[in-house]
Amino acid sequence: MGSKIQKVKKNEDGDITAVMLDDGNVYAIDEAIRMAKNGQIEGVIVGRAKNGREYLRSQPNGNPNDNLDNLPLM
User: Which domain holds residue 9?
Assistant: First the structure.
């Protein structure tokens, strides 16, 4: 069973650059994407932007409160 993202860190553009999991560990976004691909983080999927860059997004569940952009900041 994977961990869940509890908090996020954003840059000045509002892009998520790091995540904190429920175990308190903080991971850079590239590492978090790798972990999500390996099933180590619950509730997120890896998307791909038009420019080819991968990103994390919340699995759609109808609850906007747990969207990554709405989580508390670190």
Answer: 5-70
